[in-house]
Amino acid sequence: MWIEWQPQFDIGVTRVDEQHRQLVAMLNSLYQIIGPEIEPSAVWQLFGSFNRYADTHFRLEERLAKEYGLDPSKLQQHWAEHESYRLRMRGFARALENNDPHAPVQMMSFLYNWWVGHICGVDRALGRQLGEKGAH
User: Fold this and answer.
1) Residue 81, Cβ density class (10 Å: 0-12 exposed, 13-18 middle, ≥19 buried)
2) Boundaries of every domain in the chain
3) What's the confidence (pLDDT) of residue 98?
């Protein structure tokens, strides 16, 4: 699942868009190493990179929401998605630790679908809200 950057991935907030471009590069790196014979241990480094990226990215979004005074009640679904991501990644950590041979491909599929859906869904909505407050 190679991803070419698409205009719909831009949400109009430069710092967030830069991080999203970094994420697409990470997803493409994962795609390049995943194959039917991959050992779960071979994806640990990228797994850690995705977790660090998510922590940094989620903190940026949450900080921007506070900085621009967005209504927290309108962001509950967004923050809930962040938490569901963290929970799912903890599940992949257990699967990788247990050398589940299906975990790398399942994780790649999850990451691709979750991030593309998240960017094109709640992140775009966040971008609109931030844009209305003057963020760019």
Assistant:
1) middle
2) 33-132
3) 92
